[in-house]
């Protein structure tokens, strides 16, 4: 899987933009298009935004060969086409997006969920491209180096929902796989209650079928080493989703506390947001207002 990005840097000979641009990085199984309602809400508030597709997501997302066949043969065992995608490749896509908008006076890098891994690595690699980090219920590797380390914590496992959504053996598949094409209503409802519980069931199908099957194994399992001199120097905000059953409030609080202890020079500003793990679907206007804050 190529890490090349289709993003082309802006022509610096044109007029210079004003204000903040938000670079939006999706989480597991999502893509740039899930940010569209939030981008519209940001535009109504006078803010620009660029949504990123990480490698193997969006229109480039591969499907297991049996996805649309009767009974989905081999769906839970077929090795993923994304098995070789590295976290460095994903961070490279984020860096390319950041470079393309650097002429804005301020660049805010927004990550959701597992998107916190490539976004954090990108900020560590190129802190000069980022003026603010905004974590939307997303992984912060300052206290523990892998998202998998936090996902196994008691703060997550005690109340998390969604057991049984992952299919097959991630090590053998090379990815964490879900089934956004399942015809099993119980599976679909379990996924909704885990990630989108405040999106009505009758409208959830649109969001459900927009998901892709595979998250590369490397994203939550590759260690990330952050430094106070690079990642730690960037102002950072955490948007805390109060009823999140995919990345629980207790886990969000743990990541915030451990990051602040590891990088005390710039502690998180925490902004509360009601609702589920997916405010871009349930409350994009509120999310846009939280992203803008008091700037």
Automatic annotation (TrEMBL):
Residues 22-290 form the AB hydrolase-1 domain. Signal peptide: none annotated. Gene3D superfamilies: alpha/beta hydrolase. Keywords: Hydrolase. InterPro entries: AB_hydrolase_1 (IPR000073), AB_hydrolase_fold (IPR029058), MES/HNL (IPR045889). One of its GO terms (molecular function) is methyl jasmonate esterase activity. This is Alpha/beta hydrolase. It comes from Streptomyces malaysiensis subsp. samsunensis. The lineage of its organism: Bacteria, Bacillati, Actinomycetota, Actinomycetes, Kitasatosporales.
